[in-house]
């Protein structure tokens, strides 16, 4: 049996997320053959700020690769290619020559430069949105990079902008950082580039006017490639001890779109992770939004056309569930389900988890989390249920906006992410969304999407038609009294209005 396994080939995938880094190995049928995971420190230098240490991320990446291969009894030479997927918008600045970071990475949910857009006229905001497809918000990379170039202490490092103009510094999202450390190549893919607010999604190129707006020197930018392409090869002296092609790079939410087999216009997935992100494939033409949705690059496989997507983003999902534990309302994830299921309703409580501001459709960084409807009789179960219901209401907003922007049916919804492993949570979501939810048999869809991108590039799979067929793990059909659900949803929307611009009150 061991000799048979040693004759097989596989595709590896690095899934670098907000909370930690995972390495997975996939076989030809899309099944997970080996995996390893490590968390990294969440650095909070001030309220509203979040950083990661790029060195720790790289060290953990090497560790999970070595551990995953060892646990699976797989030799690096058995890997046909490597894919990389990553937390989007998180911004890294490093020295080209030394490969050392200039500062901690500024994480996607960080709000430190949220006043960047306050003084822009409406027409300035509009041209940014038209070129990038993004809302004028500190959520994206450009305002984070601007802060790094302006706000980092330059003691002993010289003028950062001057060094950037001279090509001494590299900017990238986390995929670029990992590709650089793995291969020495400074590159990214179209999906990650589309999240920087420096990239024209129509021309598929870095935009000079956007670079000027945020003061970003062009020499510090990575080369932009398709999601499925050979970026470079690992060094024989590195963690893989062989020249392995890094053949796929794709942002995490777009990777989940690919991993969920959402190849056709109208196909829709929702990922419940640190935040909730719903993406709908819109095909080779971008669709603008009048309802606060983002227009983004989905993926590009080799020389094929770019597939665009509409996206709705709610920054806080897993964070809201973690909050329940941090304030002592629950002792374990198991208790969350037992408390929420025992409570027949939220008891009139509406919770808005705007811990990192509001995303779609408001894009309001000054919003703060609020709880409405508390009474002396409110108990833990009702608060826990109100938190889970808020996740559903947020997602319903995103899905309804997509349905209004397009003529495509938004059902069924393919779901993934750590939270959806819980059947109670999935059924509650189906009820609140009043839509059918389908959970795949393979839950590592983000890493699977990166593996697909790499495997297609190196010929492990010949074409998208040859990829493993999407397999249903579980289906959740909506239930419950729709009039009651609709009334509670409208009350939750009222609560959202109360929390907007709360930080300025």
UniProtKB/TrEMBL annotation:
It comes from Halovenus carboxidivorans. Residues 10-259 form the Carbohydrate kinase FGGY N-terminal domain. GO terms for cellular component: cytosol. The keyword Zinc-finger does not apply. GO terms for biological process: glycerol metabolic process; glycerol-3-phosphate metabolic process. SUPFAM superfamilies: Actin-like ATPase domain. One of its GO terms (molecular function) is glycerol kinase activity. PANTHER family: GLYCEROL KINASE, SUGAR KINASE. It comes from the Archaea. The keyword Nucleotide-binding applies. This is ATP:glycerol 3-phosphotransferase. Residues 269-455 form the Carbohydrate kinase FGGY C-terminal domain. Keywords: ATP-binding, Glycerol metabolism, Kinase, Nucleotide-binding, Transferase. Belongs to the FGGY kinase family.
């Amino acid at each position: 049996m061991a000799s048979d396994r040693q004759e097989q080939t596989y595709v590896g995938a690095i899934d670098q997320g907000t909370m930690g880094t995972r390495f997975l190995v996939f076989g030809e049928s899309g099944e997970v053959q080996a995996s390893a995971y490590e968390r990294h420190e969440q650095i909070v230098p001030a309220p509203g700020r979040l950083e990661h240490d790029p060195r720790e991320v790289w060290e953990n990446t090497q560790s999970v690769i070595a551990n995953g291969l060892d646990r699976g009894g797989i030799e690096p030479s058995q890997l046909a290619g490597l894919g990389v997927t990553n937390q989007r918008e998180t911004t890294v600045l490093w020295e080209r020559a030394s490969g050392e970071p200039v500062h901690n990475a500024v994480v996607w949910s960080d709000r430190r430069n949220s006043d960047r857009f306050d003084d822009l006229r409406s027409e300035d905001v509009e041209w940014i949105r038209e070129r990038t497809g993004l809302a004028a918000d500190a959520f994206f990379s450009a305002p984070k990079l601007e802060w790094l170039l302006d706000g980092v202490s330059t003691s002993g490092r010289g003028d950062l902008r001057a060094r950037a103009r001279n090509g001494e510094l590299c900017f990238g999202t986390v995929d670029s950082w990992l590709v650089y450390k793995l291969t020495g190549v400074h590159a990214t893919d179209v999906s990650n580039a589309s999240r920087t607010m420096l990239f024209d999604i129509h021309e598929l190129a870095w935009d000079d006017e956007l670079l000027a707006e945020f003061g970003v020197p062009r020499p510090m930018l990575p080369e932009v490639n398709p999601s499925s392409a050979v970026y470079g090869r690992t060094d024989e002296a590195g963690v893989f001890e062989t020249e392995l092609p890094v053949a796929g790079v794709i942002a995490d939410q777009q990777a989940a779109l690919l991993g969920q087999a959402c190849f056709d216009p109208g196909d829709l997935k929702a990922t419940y992770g640190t935040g909730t992100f719903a993406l709908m494939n819109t095909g080779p033409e971008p669709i603008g939004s009048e309802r606060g949705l983002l227009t983004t690059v989905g993926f590009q496989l080799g020389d094929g056309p770019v597939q665009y997507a509409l996206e709705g983003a709610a920054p806080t999902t897993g964070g809201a569930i973690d909050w329940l534990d941090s304030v002592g309302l629950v002792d374990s994830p198991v208790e969350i389900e037992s408390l929420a299921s025992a409570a027949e309703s939220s008891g009139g409580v509406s919770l808005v988890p705007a811990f990192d501001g509001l995303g779609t459709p408001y894009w309001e960084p000054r919003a703060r989390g609020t709880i409405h409807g508390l009474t002396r009789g409110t108990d833990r179960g009702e608060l826990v249920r109100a938190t889970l219901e808020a996740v559903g209401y947020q997602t319903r907003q995103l899905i309804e906006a997509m349905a209004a922007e397009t003529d495509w049916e938004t059902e069924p919804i393919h779901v993934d992410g750590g939270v959806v492993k819980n059947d109670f949570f999935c059924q509650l979501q189906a009820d609140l969304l009043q839509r059918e939810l389908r959970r795949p048999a393979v839950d590592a869809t983000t890493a699977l999407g990166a593996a697909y991108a790499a495997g297609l590039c190196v010929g492990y799979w010949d074409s998208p038609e040859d990829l493993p067929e999407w397999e249903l793990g579980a289906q959740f059909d909506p239930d419950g009294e729709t009039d009651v659900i609709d009334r509670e949803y409208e009350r939750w929307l009222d609560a959202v209005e109360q929390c907007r611009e709360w930080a300025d009150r």
